Amino acid sequence: MNRIAIFTVSALCGLGLVVPVFSQEPAKNLTSTNVAVDKSQLPRNTGMISSFAPIVDTIAPSVVSIYTSKTVRMPRTMRELYGYGTPRSGTVQGLGSGVIVSDDGYILTNNHVADGADEILVSIGLEHKEYKAKKIGADPGTDIAVLKIEGKNLPAITFADSDKARVGDIVLAVGNPYGLTRTVTMGIISGLGRGNIGLADYENFIQTDASINPGNSGGALVDTEGRLVGINTAIFSPNGGNNGIGFAVPANLAHEVLKSIREHGSVVRGFLGISIASVTQEMADSLKLQEVSGAFVSGVSQGGPADKAGMKNGDVVKEINGSKIDDARQLRLLISGMAPGTKVDVKLIREGQEKTVKAELGTLPSKPELASSSGGPAPGQHVSNVLDGINVGDIDDDVREAFHIPRKVRGVVIASIETESAGYKAGLRAGYVIQEVNHQPVHNADEAVEMGDKIKKGEKAELQIWNQSKSESITLSDG
User: Which of 212, 240, 295, 360 lies in the 20 to 30 Å Cα band around 7?
Assistant: First the structure.
């Protein structure tokens, strides 16, 4: 998972930080699951809520503590280096939170909480009753994992419709910061649809100022009716402490991941078969677009859904089934959230004219390199390892016009690039052209992906690039 330096995302192991999850006190006389809070019982003072205790009492049993352990190889001693003794291993403990989402024991948490764990224990309620948990599946793309414990009539939380959440709504965060169970903090929703953060592949985070600290990853963000709004996932912090900026995966997205994993064992996503980049002001001016919005198509997978629908390089996607597309990230999220086989109306701009085509979505390949080399909904073609975070597309006349690439320049265009990638730190930017990889000429995006796959982790890559004015050589390394 890519990280921005000022973000701390705990793997819930060792000293790693985790997004806060706020634990709640067990409900009294709870007789059924998915119980909404009776707001008429809330203490009030001059028309204002004076206590959230009834909400906390109701939802606390649904928020659990998660304890993980995994065996890791410890550093070798000098004795071992010289051939004596045996390599040592040790056990790393992790702590996080989770949310019971069904009365038969399904639990949502973060993927980074459960990832790589050899053993997972779940503690429920004031009596701290422990259960052994099984990892049913995970989706690193959204940082969501699904666990299962054996039980009946467990206190499942009620889902809110997170699409109806508004900036300014009051929310509570419940979890185990620093191992302090049944901790609840209050705040508001500070922002919606946060992306381009570098935490996951499919980012559509809810931002909140409810205090979130290490140990809360996988916990619940709930509204004033005690319904799940999101799964707390990360904090924005230069020093590991709470700065009033936390991020949660929306409940609707988490529910879709849960449903797909329960039905298929993994997340199945829609696939349109295009390489895309967000429209910039320069591109809008060049293509004579009325506004700086939409997703520019830099590549179309041959034989894919978009190709069959008649989409072409240079198209600018403006709407999908009536939903406006502001940028490449939004299009990627929208398509990936649809089921394979879904029929979509794609409204686009081609050579200044509005046009609508009909496409039937395919299935997104499971391997990132296959998805991108096929021109999937990811922004461009994805190059791996030291080239990770660089998304490239084929160059045709429309791409040349949009990025002002001279006829004599050959290679693949960088459609987008992640700010924390080695390439960005070395000076690469969208619109640059990769002409060679390790002294081998690059002719198309598929070839670039293939070359990238041959570079082993930790190896350097020497690129010959055209930087909008001249050709130069750039060496990329993981360091």
Answer: 295
Structural domain harbouring 362: 270-368
Q: Is 217 annotated as catalytic?
A: yes
Distance from C-alpha of 343 to C-alpha of 338, rounded to nearest angstrom: 10
Neighbouring-strand partners of residue 404 = none
In the chain, the amino acid numbered 244 is G
User: Which residue, of 309, 341, 368, is where some domain finishes?
Assistant: 368
373 lies in some domain: no
The catalytic position among 112, 336, 384, 421 is 112
Does position 400 have pLDDT exceeding 60, yes or no? yes
pLDDT, one tens digit per residue, over 435-458 is 988 888 888 887 888 787 778 777
Looking at the predicted structure, is the pLDDT value of residue 248 above 60? Answer: yes
From 139, 143, 327, 388, active-site residue: 143
348-382 tens-digit pLDDT: 998 888 999 999 999 887 644 333 433 333 334 44
Residues 256 and 302 in one domain: no
Given the residues 23, 62, 190, 217, the one annotated as active site: 217
Q: Is 255 considered catalytic here? A: no
**Cα separation, 176 vs 174, whole angstroms:** 7
Q: How far is CA 75 from CA 13, 80, 89, in A?
A: 17, 10, 8
Q: CATH code at 424?
A: 2.30.42.10
Q: Would residue 327 show up in a list of annotated catalytic residues for this protein?
A: no
